[in-house]
Specification:
There is one protein chain. This protein is an all-beta fold and 137 residues long. It has a single domain, classed as YVTN repeat-like/Quinoprotein amine dehydrogenase (Methylamine Dehydrogenase, Chain H, 7 Propeller), CATH 2.130.10.10. The chain is 0% helix and 50% strand.
Length: 137
């Protein structure tokens, strides 16, 4: 569930997962970002990236299958929602186009799950850290 508090309270609840259904248990949000221009929420789950209309809470579209046989560990939008970077559980970093979900490039990765992604816009740097105790700039 995602909760927003402003002049009003908005709750957006994801589908309920059955205890027997492993795929449904991977849809909980790991990162939520708000795109003011398109008035949408960008929600990264372990398996996909979802775009939700902020006004009515309806799902607009989903980018699924971004990572083959792997799960998303970290998500970061860049360049005013023109691209996004995903870090996975195996330590790889990939950059995608926001409008169509196409992979732009694969970046040097880590040996273990990506724990954080930061962007230094003034120096044009992507900084990532991992559970393998490494930081890549």
């Amino acid at each position: 569930m995602v909760c927003f508090l402003g002049s009003r309270l908005n709750l957006i609840e994801f589908e309920k997962a059955n205890s027997n259904d492993q795929d449904m248990q991977n849809i909980y949000p790991i990162k939520v970002e708000y795109n003011r221009v398109k008035e949408e929420l960008v929600v990264a789950t372990r398996k996909d990236v979802r775009f939700i209309n902020i006004k009515d809470g309806r799902l607009k579209y989903i980018f699924s299958g971004l990572l083959k046989d792997n799960e998303i560990a970290q998500f970061k939008s860049i360049n005013q929602f023109k691209m996004f970077i995903i870090g996975d559980q195996k330590g790889k970093l990939k950059m995608f186009n926001f409008s169509n979900g196409e992979e732009i490039k694969q970046l040097n990765g880590h040996k273990n799950e990506v724990s954080n992604i930061k962007i230094d816009y003034s120096n044009k740097l992507i900084i990532s850290s991992s559970w393998d105790s490494s930081i890549i700039i």
